[in-house]
Amino acid sequence: MLFYKTYGSKTKPPVVLVHGLGGNCNIFCNQLRQYAKHFYVIAIDLPGHGQSPKIAKTESFSFEKAARSVIDVLDELKIKKAVFVGVSLGTVIIHSVLTLSPERVEKAVLAGAITSHNIKTKVLNYTGIALKRVMPYMWLYRLGAYIIMPRRGHAASRTIFIEEAKKLGYSQFIRWFSILGHSDTIYPKMNDNAIPKLYILGEEDHVLLRAVKKDIQKDKSACYHVLANSGHLCNIDQAQLFNEISIDFITSRSVSAVS
Fold it and tell me: Residue 4 forms beta bridges with which residues?
């Protein structure tokens, strides 16, 4: 069973927080207090991250398996349906939950989402593959952090991104990195477009912004909001605005396109 923490009252609507590669539930430190006022918050550590069990070397692993382990937490808490909020690679896990068990998802908020690969993400992946055996994983992780979040205004996001990744460890990083190249295969598998989804994108997310805006055009239940002066981890760069927009979306009955 994955490690998780809960915040707020069980009488309130459940919201599941899903972090990205190298992080843990602490990546949502700027959301927890505000969210707990409105929701019953379940912050999960993904396999191999934080205080969750490590992925064994001989264990088969995939995004689908990670998604099922998240669903297991809902079963443990006897929650039939929840809102999911994910960041970065956590959005791939949520897309996988939407593919495997869409009936468990009330709504989804996806920040710094990954929907498909482009030239930039392919170059990052190929570079990582070439360097992962000769470069300490934290050097590689730092390099990736500066490429994805290069601006001075992204400093806080980079720091949290890097500091939390130190807890991951080489073996677990390699297990996740081994499936990273397949992250673009999950979004196209979703076959239920009736579930409301809000994609929150940083205006300065030069790696993923354009791809996400293009990919979600065919999903009538998806809308997006672009945050100015914000990069990949927009939940940190513009925490207060992120909280206001996401809480409004979660508590609203309608879905409307925003920009």
Answer: 44
Amino acid at 104: R
Q: Which of 131-135, 150-154, 166-170, 195-199 has the highest mean pLDDT?
A: 195-199
pLDDT bucket at 64, cuts 50 / 70 / 90: very high
What DSSP element (H or E) covers 247? helix 239-251
* pLDDT, tens digit (0-9, with 9 covering 90-100), for 233-255: 999 999 999 999 999 999 986 44
Cβ atoms 8, 40 nearer than 8 A: yes
Q: Pinpoint the alpha helices (H) of 132-238.
A: 137-148, 155-165, 170-180, 209-215, 234-237
Buried b (16+ CB within 10 A) or exposed e, 190-224: beeeebbbbbbbbebbbbbbebbeebbeebeebbb
41 strand-pairing partners: 7, 15
Nearest to 148 by CA among 226, 216, 234, 212: 234
- Residue ranges of alpha helices (H) inside 45-88 are 63-76
Q: Where are the domains of the chain?
A: 4-251
Of 4, 15, 158, 150, nearest in space to 79 by CA? 15
CATH superfamily of 4-251: Alpha/Beta hydrolase fold, catalytic domain (3.40.50.1820)
β-pairing, 82-87 with 105-111? Answer: parallel
Count of helices and strands (H, E) across the chain: 10, 7
Give the residue from 79, 18, 21 showing the smallest Cα distance to 55: 21
Per the model's pLDDT, the better-predicted residue between 85 and 161 turns out to be 85
